[in-house]
Amino acid sequence: MKSLRFCFLIISTCFLFWGAGCSSSLIPVSKPQSFFLPDSFTNYQSAGRVLLVTPDQKVPGELEFSLSRDLELRFQVFAPIIGTLVYEFRANKDQFMILDFREKKYFLDDNDSQTRQQWFGIDISLNELRWVVWGRIPRQEFEQHQGHYVSSKSLKFTSKEAEFFVTLDANGIMSQLIKEVEGVLIYKVSLQKYQEIEGNLFPKVIQIISPLNQGKLRLVMNEIRSQPYPPQALTFLPGEGMTPFQDE
To answer: Nearest to residue 123, comparing CAs of 96, 88, 142?
Structure first.
């Protein structure tokens, strides 16, 4: 089971792969971009590379990433060079699924904090993951969570029991997001190398550090597409011949 959970960390995306001390690169900005995500935001899709680093090994892979406006996530990891699909992670607001195509195994459970912590390695919700890949937060959510500017380059807001701290770069773009619960660091996200796609700026490099699990996750988004149509609808049925993982 230890090796299984290690493999599943690859998929934790997301939401997030990484080294400490990263900051968003300054880029020429053709027009000012608000820190707040506009109401007209659409679906997000990207392709690139993923790297998981643990205390004793590194696991690289190619990735396909899709997060819909309705918070449906599909995260696929392919073997480098060969291109064979190795793992797939699916999630919506209610369910959490991992498919291991090498072992012909799957895991399915509720998408809650305990499940994400145990199997995903990082307790990051789909909504928080959306903030990260877009590099922005909806204004309504920010205001609902008592959001306020601590300084011209830093913001703070709360959500249930968690506190979030945001750092902006010289362009007013999110370069860092920190989540704490009762003063304990849950994760730290660093966003780098923003690129302009269809009139919006998106982080190309996303890194997440989870001290609780001594894990680092890094995503490099080489192709980013914000699409006005929904991706393929998610299903939570295992593939043919797959059997459920049994806890040991």
So the answer is: 96
Q: Is residue 26 part of a domain?
A: yes
For the stretch 191-203, pLDDT in tens is 999 988 877 889 9
Local confidence band at 54 (pLDDT 50, 70, 90 cut-offs): low
**CB half-sphere exposure, 12, CA atoms < 13 A:** 33
Task: Tell me the C-alpha to C-alpha distance, in Å, between residue 117 and each of 148, 186, 217.
Answer: 28, 10, 14
**What residues pair up with 76 in beta bridges, in sequence order?**
64, 88
Residue 21's identity, in one-letter code, is: G
Return the CATH number at 66. 2.50.20.10
Sorted by sequence, the CB contacts under 8 Å of residue 183 that are 6+ apart come out as none
Q: Domain range spanning residue 140? A: 2-230
